[in-house]
User: Fold this.
Amino acid sequence: MSRTALLRWLARPGRYLARADWPVLLAAAAAAAFGLVVQAGIAGPGRLPTSHAMRLAVAAAALAAAAALPARIWRRHAYLLYGLGVAGLVLVLLIGRATNAARSWIDLGGGFKLQPSEFMKVGLLLALAKWFADRKRPERFEDLVVPAALAALPAALVLLQPDLGTTLTFAPLFLFLCWLAGTPWRLLRWFVLTPVLLAPLALAAGQNYQRERIEVWLHQNELSEEQKKAEGYQLWHAKMAVGTGGLTGFGWGRGPENRYDLLPERHNDFIFPVVAEEFGLVGASAFLALYAAIGLLALRGAVRHRDPFARFVVAGVGAHFLDHLILNVGVTLGLFPTTGLPLPLVSFGGSAMVASAAAVGLLLAVGAERRPVFGDRAFED
Amino acid sequence: MSRFRRIGRAALVYGVFLALILARLVQLQVLERETWRAEAIRARSSGRTLPFERGRILDRRGRVEAEDQRAFVLRFEYRSFRRGHLAGQIFEACRLAGLPVGGLTDAWRRAEELGRALLSLPAETVRELPAGSRGDLLFYLERIGGLPRSRRPELEFWAQEGTGPFPWPPPAEGFLATLERLRRSWQRLEALVPEPPLLPRLEEERRRLELRLRFLALREAAAAATGSTRLEVLEALAGADRRAFLEALLGRWRLAAAAGDELADALRRSRAPSGEEEAWFGRTGELLRRIEAAAPEDLAGVRRRLEREVHSAWRPILARDLDWRLVDLVGQDPESYPGLQVEEVHVRRYPGSLDPHLLGYLRQPGEEELEEYETLRAERRALARKLDPTPAETRELARLDRLLLREVRRPDDWVAVQGAERAGDEVLAGRRGLLRRLRWDEDEPVELEFLPPANGGDLRLALDEAWSQAAVRAVHEGYALALQGLDARPGGSAVPASVRAALARPRAGFVLLDLRDGTVPVAVTVPSYDPETFRRDYRTLAEDPARPLRHRALGSAADAGQIPYPGSTFKLVAAVEALSRDPSWWTRTFRCERHYLPPYATGTRLSCTGRHGEIDLRAAIRVSCNIYFYHLAEELGWEALEARARSLGFGEATTGLDLTSRPGPDGRPEPLSSWLEVGSRLHPPDGRGRGRLVNAMRLAIGQTYVEASPLQMARFYGWLACGRLWRPRMVLERDGRPTEPEWREPPLDPGLRRLLEQALLDVTGPEGTAWDRAFQRYQLRDFAVAGKTGTAQVGRGADGRELPTHAWFAGWFPAGPGAGPPRYAVAVLCENAGLHGGWIATYVLHRFLEQVGEELLR
Assistant:
C-alpha cells in the first residue's frame, strides 16, 4: 500500500463518521434504550433485564460490523446474502426447532437460537434493491416477475414453517421497493388488490386458530366471557392494558396487566400495550414518534441519494421499521387481526433485534457512501 | 415521477397508518377510558362468598342438638386429578387413544407399562382422532412425557406433520422419575387416610361421575334432537305429551318401542340408585352407542362440553374430620396431590340424642331447585359481556348480583328437610357474605366490597333430651318387663311367637304434652336411627320392616298392620258425646253378656273382653266394656259421634304441630311436611254404610274408622284434663323470641269433666284395666295418673292370621283429689305388641314416671 493510500484508508473513518446518518442511529438507539427500560419494568423490581441487555449488546456489535462494511461489498454480495438467507430457511425446515407451533429456529447450541427468517428480510431487501438498481424502470408485468419471485420464494419457505406474521412482512417490503423503483400504479395495483381479493379464500383454507383470530378480531367489542378467557384473551387484555393506561399511565413497572402477569407475550410481541399502560397516551405517543422517526428519518435520508441502490436500501430499511411498527402496534390495538410479529430493537426476540440492528448498520454503511455510481439508472431522475 | 415524490408518497401512506394508530390510541385511552377501567375492574376483581354459620338447635334445657362445626374435609375434584395426576393422565390418555385400561386403579398399577405404550404412540394414530380429542390427548401426553411447556408447539407440529413416535425426553428423566416421586407421596398420603385405600375410592367416584355424565349426555342428546334445553326435556317427560315426545326420540334414534320406558327413566335420572350403578353403566352405554350410530349430530361435542361443566363441579368428600398431619401434607404440597383438596367447611353435627325425625336434616339442592339460579346466572353472564353497559344495565347487573348472592337457592346452599331444620329454617339460616377484591396497582389487592356474613339464630325446642332418653329407656324396660311377666304367668310358654318377636324388638311411640303451655317435652319413637349415618344407611332403613324412618309418636304414614287405631282410648270421645247430650248417661246401665248380636245386622256378632253383667258408664270405662259402648253408639248414631270426634281434633290431617307446619301469611298453619305427622284420620263409611249402626259401634270403640297418633290422643286427654285443646308446640324460642301458645276450648261442663276424671282414675285403680296384679310394683296410681288403656285390633296379615294388636295408654297426671291442677297429658302406643294396653303400655309409662316423675312435677 502506498503512503497516500494508507493515509486515505486511515482518514476513512473520519469521512465515514462525517457522512453517517446520525439521526437514524440516534433514533434507533433511543428506541432500543426505551425498550430496555420497559423490559426492566417487565422483569419486575430488583431484577435486571440482563438477557435483553445481552441481546442488545450483540445487536450493537452486529450494527457496528454491518456499518463497517463498505457499501460496495453489500452491493456486490447482495444476491449471495439473499442466497444465504434462503439456504437458512431451507435449513430451518430440515433441522429447525419449533416454538409457538412454527419451525422457525436453528439451534446454535449453548442456548442460542437463530431465526433465519429475520435475516432473510435484510437479504430480500438487498436483493430487490440490487435487482431494481441494476435495471430500467419496470414498465410491464414481465419486469416484475423476477423481483416477485425473489420475494415469493422466502415468503413461501417461511409460510411452510408456518409463520404467517413474518410472511406478511415480505409483502410490504416488496411493494415498497417496487414503488420506489418506479413501477407504475397500474401494474402495482394488481399486487395490492389481488391479496385483498384472495384474503377470504386464504381464510377458508387457513387453519382453525387463524379463523378463530379473525373471528375474535371482527367481534372484539362483543366477546363472550368464555372468549375473553380463551381465544380472545390476548387481544382483550392488550386493549384493557392500553385503555386503562389513560393519559399518563400507571407509571413504570406499575401496570397491573404487567405486574400481575395477566398479559402474555408482553415482553415480546405485546410490549406496546405495556408501554401504553405504564406511560399512558403521552408516553405511548412519544414512543411511537421515536420509533417512527427511525423509519421516517431513513426515508428522508434516502431522498438525498442519487444512487438507486443506496436509495432503495436506505428507504427499505426505513420501511422495514415502519412496517413492523404499524403491524405490531396495530395488532395490539385491535386494528389488525392478531399475528405474531416482534417490534425490532424493543421486543425480546434476539434474531429480529440483531437483524434489524444489522439493517441500521447497513443503512449507515450504504448511506455514508456518496460516490457517484455509474449504473444504468444513475442519472435517470 | 421523481424519487422525491415516490418516497414522499410512501411516507404519506405510512403517515396515514401512524395517524390511524394514534387515533386508535386516543380512542382507547381517552374516549373509552372509563369503559376499560370498568372492564378491568370486572376482570381483575375476584369475589368469593363468605359462608355463614347455621344456627344451633337446642333442647328445652339448652343442650345442643344440632350445630355447625368447622372441620377439614378432603374433597376429590376429578378435573384437577385427571389433568394433574399421573394415574388420571394415563387413564384419560388411554381412553382417548383407545388403549384398554380398567379404571384409575388399573392405570396406576400398570402406570409404567401404559405410560411407555402411550409415549410410543405414532403421530399417525394421534392424527386420526377428532380435533378435540387430539388436543386432549396431546395435553395428557405432554404431561406424562414430562415435556417442558416451551416444547408444546413441537408436539403439536409432530401431531400435524410428524411420523412415528415423538422424541420424548428419556423416561428416566421425565416419566419414570415423576412416577417414582408420586408413588412415594401417595404412600405418605395413604398412611394418613382412614381405610379403605384411597385410589379404589377415587375410581368409585370417577365411575359415579362418569355415570352422571352419561345421564346428562342422554338428556343433552334429547335436547339437541328436539331443539330444546335439558330442563325442557325434563318438563316434557313430566308433561301430558310425554308419549309423543318419547316416540319422537325413539324414532329418531332407531330404538325399539319397548325401550321407551327405559329411555324415559334414563333421561330423568342424574344418578343411579346405589347398588344399581353397574346395570345403569351398561344401559346408558348401550343407549349412547345406539344414538351415536343413529344420530351422531345429537352427541357432537357433548362429552367435552359436559366434562367442562361437570368435572370441576363434582367434588365429593372423601374423608371428614381430617387428621392435622393430612391437612399439612396436602396443604403444603398440593402439587403432589392434584385433585385432592383440603377444605375447611361447616359441617352440620347432631351431637344430641333427640329423634332425627324431629331435628330434620340438610341436603344439597337438586337440579330443579337450582333452575332459578342458573337462569339468573345466564342473564348475568349475558349482561356482563357488554363492553359498555348502559346505566340501566349496570343497575340490573347489581340487582342480579344481589339476587344471586342471597336471594335464590345456590349450589353451595343447604336445603333443610323436615323437622326443626325445616320449620326453623328462616331463623337458623344465616346470610352469606361477600368479599370482592381487586388487583390494581397496589401491592396488596384492594378490597372493593365486603358484606360480612350473618350467622343464623338459634332454635330452642320444647323437647327435653334427658326426658326423651328416659322415655326410650322406659320403652325398652317396659317391653322387657312385659316379656318377663308373660313368662311368669301360668301358660306363659304358649305366648305366640309373633308376640315374643314383637316384644324383643320394641316399636313404640311416646308423647308427653305439657298442659300449662302446650309444649311437647317428649315425643319419642322406637326404633330410631343415627342422623350421622342416615344417608349412607338410607336404603337399609327404608326397607327395614320395623320402619325406623316412621315417627310413631306423630303417626307418620303407616303400613297396613301398623295403622294406629286408637282402640278403647277413643271410647272417651263417645262418653263425652253421650254425657254432653244427656248427663243421665252417667247412671244408665246395660247388660254385658260378652257377646252382642245387633238385631238389625244379621250375622254380625260383636264381642267384649269379658262378661261384665249389668254395667254403668263409669264401670264400662273402668273395665273397658265394649258392649256398653255399642249400646251407646246405637243411641247416638254415626253423625253425632263423627261430629264430636271432629270437634276434638280427630280427623284432622295434622295437629298443627309447629315442626310439621308453621303459621302462613293468613295465620293458618301452612304444611311443611306431608308425612312426618299424619295426625288423625276419620274414614266415614260411604252411602248406606253411614246409616248402619254397626259402623257407629266400631267407631265408638276406636276401630276401623278412626286413626290417631299418640300426639293426637295426648292432646285429646289434655283437653279432658284442662279444657284446652292445645296446638302442640315443639319450638320454645326462635332466635331468643318465645313462641306463643295456641289452643282451642271446645266446651265441656266442669261437672262432667270431674265425673270422667273419676272414671279414668278407676282405670288405674285396683279394679281397672291399668291395674296389674302380677306386677304390683308398677301401679300408675303411685303417680296419680288418670287414663285409659286401649287394645286395638289391626286386621289380618297376608297369611290370613290376626296380626298382633296395638297396646295403648292415654291419660294425664297428676289427677285426683288433692293432686293439684293437671300438668301433663301422656300417650303411649306399643305397636303390634300383641298384649293388652294394661300390660305393656302402662309398664312403659310407669318406668318413665319412675325415672323422671318427680322431676316432672317439681
